[in-house]
Amino acid sequence: MADTSGKRLLDSDKTGEPAPDVKRGKTDNENGREDGNESVQENVLSGFKTSSVLSDSAREKNIFIHGKVADQDAVVILEKTPIREDSLAQLFSGSTLKLEMKNDIYSTYRLQAPPHLNEIKTTVVCPATEKHIKKYQRKESFLVEETEEDYKNITLPHILKQSFSVQWVYNILEKKAEAERIVYEDPDPDVGFVLLPDFKWDQKQVDDLYLIAILHQRDIKSLRDLTSEHVPLLQNIFQKGKEAILQRYNLPASKLRVYLHYQPSYYHLHVHFTKLGYDAPGCGVERAHLIADVIQNLQSNPQYYKTRTLYFPMRADDGLLSKFKEAGRL
Amino acid sequence: MADTSGKRLLDSDKTGEPAPDVKRGKTDNENGREDGNESVQENVLSGFKTSSVLSDSAREKNIFIHGKVADQDAVVILEKTPIREDSLAQLFSGSTLKLEMKNDIYSTYRLQAPPHLNEIKTTVVCPATEKHIKKYQRKESFLVEETEEDYKNITLPHILKQSFSVQWVYNILEKKAEAERIVYEDPDPDVGFVLLPDFKWDQKQVDDLYLIAILHQRDIKSLRDLTSEHVPLLQNIFQKGKEAILQRYNLPASKLRVYLHYQPSYYHLHVHFTKLGYDAPGCGVERAHLIADVIQNLQSNPQYYKTRTLYFPMRADDGLLSKFKEAGRL
């Protein structure tokens, strides 16, 4: 569910659409190699016809495009990659510079780099449904105030009725997809989880580190379902997630921002691990809840998240927002 | 009224150094062409030796580097350019795609584009002084965990000893400065406040609206001092601030993010009003506290902010961070 501002769109690069059999996906992939020894792909985008730009960000250098790949609707997301320190020497020696302006000690150039040093991260959603297209479209957002009663009367019925599929989450938990991306796993069925990089992170540098811990437990939809009985689960994820990140990426806990979203993008509880100092989309106070605060709040009041009025941003086209409007709550 | 974070460095990519006559700049530029008919420059950066990365942003795809150009100190700023809609067709047809991952309808690629469609904006400051280098340097920050005892034993003594001057705040409250900028005032000595634009907001558009409400009461340093007795004060600021913004800027409460910082930039309680959807510096969950949550928390537990462990980011050069380190708390 949805995100809110244009900038946050990258946050929700999966919708709740029913996911077809992963095997089919693998078959589709037979001309591809996912390891380091990759070969150049047939350019699936060479015949891409743009229908419209759904949104873009000049600050983040990304663009979300709706169009057609061989008569199928597709959403293509392009985002330039961060500049890596370890490529600077090659970049400086191997590029062409074009002078634009010179004034005193300041000069500006356009630098044309060797393509392999200046890649664009490309995500293709194909076939894309109307729902995907809407999802990526920039829409105004509104701050919604959700009381305990609003959750019971408006939000929960909406979630249950929509029955958003989280098949892709189960694919990950069952190692049917993305198994090679798993950074850490605690297999315990009660407090265990799988930790893997978020799609938004290209894993080339820790500056924008972004991992997701997905619970093995399947019956916790969101923050609203948490009570003090879940404190050991949250503590386990927090502690082991931090340890795994220290071990794998050499990043200590004091450099991490660990939080849950409310509303989340999908209703299977998951925890975000991002690098402190990286303005990750969705880390704003209006949507993020530090796991350390969540634990404290549940310890002092087991019903904290069941009873509290919660605030969250909601995009204008979100079905849930209409429900709040119909109920006269906005 | 200071902001702190590294993300804003681009804000200031020129220092306050005196700028020489522009005509001289033009003369320097005689071997360059600024029009479409430009010639390739001698690559002044081909011999650039990197000394250190001063700062970078994975989100904004920029990097600030200190190094040497022919024995002269230089600062080089690289920033990837926004993706342009009018170049998409060429980009799709002319690029090479490398498959990274495929799961169901989602696939990700690394796209290698023709260099002229994927330029990097390059700014060179040369010769650069020590002042330039310091200006572009990012200070790392760390997440600090402050218990009730830490506040009493470390933070509070540090605040009191520093006796940070808030004379500029008193000047505003007494109309000795910035009186013409005041948007709204409630003069009540107990629950009253002055509402005015933050320095970061140029007031040219509401997209990045940013106002500050400063209390008339002078004895509340921060969130840590708040108890349930301050609920009427917070409710008054929240309510009247929203009304004043609706009246002046035609922006309803559902478009606002209203919050306090902990730690604040200065120890005289104030409240931030920013537009929802604008990624205001300091609106991240690690530093911001929604006033609506603060009110609820105090209503259910009058000592909430006196007793709770609070988390906040702190820059490496902050004196308070050293105190936490000395106390073995980091």
Automatic annotation (TrEMBL), chains A, B:
The keyword Acetylation applies. Substrate binds at residues 168, 178, 198, 200, 261-272. GO terms for biological process: deadenylation-dependent decapping of nuclear-transcribed mRNA; mRNA processing; RNA splicing. The active site is at H270 (nucleophile). Its EC number is 3.6.1.59. It is found in: Cytoplasm; Nucleus. It holds the Pfam family DcpS_C. It is an enzyme of class 3 (hydrolase). GO terms for molecular function: 5'-(N(7)-methyl 5'-triphosphoguanosine)-[mRNA] diphosphatase activity; RNA 7-methylguanosine cap binding. It catalyses: a 5'-end (N(7)-methyl 5'-triphosphoguanosine)-ribonucleoside in mRNA + H2O = N(7)-methyl-GMP + a 5'-end diphospho-ribonucleoside in mRNA + 2 H(+). Residues 1-36 have a biased composition (Basic and acidic residues). Keywords: Acetylation, Cytoplasm, Hydrolase, mRNA processing, mRNA splicing, Nucleus, Phosphoprotein. GO terms for cellular component: nucleus; P-body. Residues 1-44 are annotated as: Disordered. It comes from the Eukaryota. Gene3D superfamilies: HIT-like, Scavenger mRNA decapping enzyme, N-terminal domain. Belongs to the HIT family. Homodimer. Associates with components of the exosome multienzyme ribonuclease complex, such as EXOSC3 and EXOSC4. Interacts with NDOR1. This is m7GpppX diphosphatase. It comes from Neolamprologus brichardi (Fairy cichlid). The lineage of its organism: Eukaryota, Metazoa, Chordata, Craniata, Vertebrata.
